[in-house]
Amino acid sequence: MSMLRDISLAGAGQTKIEFASRRMPVLAALAERFAETKPFAGHRIAACLHVTTETANMCKALVAGGAELALCASNPLSTKDDVAASIQRDIGAEVFAIYGCDRETFYKQVQGVLDIRPTIVVDDGADLTSIIHNDYPQLLEDIIGGTEVTSTGVLRMRNMETDGALKYPVLPTNDAATKHLFDNRYGTGQNTIDGILRATNMLLAGSTVVIVGYGWCGRGVAMRARGMGANVIITEIDPIRALEAKLDGLLVMKLDDALAHGDIYVTVTGNRDVITLSHMERMKDGAVICNSGHFDVEIAVEALQKAAVDRRELRPNCVEYVLADGPRIILLAEGRLVGQSAAEAHPAEVMDMTFSTQALGVQYLIENAASMKPGVHEIPRSIENIVASAKLEAYGVTIDTLSDAQQSYLTDWRVGT
């Protein structure tokens, strides 16, 4: 039995899904092909994803390909209730997603998709994978494989593999170039800034934005913040990434040293306790803090709430906490994914590549899982090339090809200077 806010919202959701589809030509073409070939026929897919218009279009492709699909939310604040209703009514998946639900309801939704007894798991953050292995091991015998779409989830699955706990093969969609080079950088970069602006309506030009973490997502946030006139400071623990930020023309320093300068702080590390209460107590009065990582563990929200002597909601997704003998701290989106929670998530054009890679990964598992050992495997480069080439074609871009002589030169070790 599905869990929705209101099925009558489906009409509005359907319109938004259709608009996103126009900007997802690669996935739309795959959906047409899947409808003819039915590669997912006989398979039951349990998916734990952000319930957005872009996700809806991947659901459409999977169902068109013959899959029985159950979908739950991977974050309670990223769910779009009208989209969830339309996925249920118009696409035919069983949906368990309600915006803003409490933690208990959230995990009931995750458990709800397992009634399908999945043969394939499509995950975002590895919650579904972890719950299956910890609490529902009886389901493992039916599962041929899974996919994981975000950095944090891939890290968790690699840890499971190291511990010998992962019992089926997983394709890490996040590690595909058609995902992290575009989705993480351009998608996260844009929607994080969008979320900050919608929540605060602040002027970025002239402000100082401290970005904690300079992975692909951090690069994207820095690029967009700098493009809007902000002064950008990067804090890092990885010397290679710190050096890259320095050579990209950004200020690099320890977080403790940045506390005197920052107007806005963005965590994007995938780790916990990145901004602590001690950090917040030393920030400027009125400092804005937010998180762009998958889980709400990067900012010490509970410690902030306990230490505050007063709180008030300034705007939607924008709450001010007053610290005794300390600054006023403005927390966005409860410390959850600010771009998903306060804005519209990744643009459809970017998710076109991510979800096309994901869908082709599911097809690859169906065709090859029987010969794959449990563990995290690479996304085949052939899938990435198909997606990238189709995206270029959709943009009307053509590229060069190697001549026979050039191809021979690249594969012959005998030819030198």
What's the N-to-C terminus distance? 68 Å
Binned strand content: 15-25%
Please state the second-level CATH architecture of the largest domain: 3-Layer(aba) Sandwich
Could you name the CATH homologous superfamily of the largest domain? Answer: Adenosylhomocysteinase-like
Main sheet attributes: strand count, strand direction, barrel closure? 8 strands, mixed
Domain count, please report it. Answer: 2
Overall 3D form = globular
Low-pLDDT segments: none
| Assembly status | single chain
User: What is the β-strand count?
Assistant: 15
What is the name of the CATH class of the largest domain? Alpha Beta
Overall mean pLDDT score? 96
Function: May play a key role in the regulation of the intracellular concentration of adenosylhomocysteine.
Binding site for NAD(+): 184, 213-218, 236, 271, 292-294
Family: Belongs to the adenosylhomocysteinase family.
Catalytic activity: S-adenosyl-L-homocysteine + H2O = L-homocysteine + adenosine
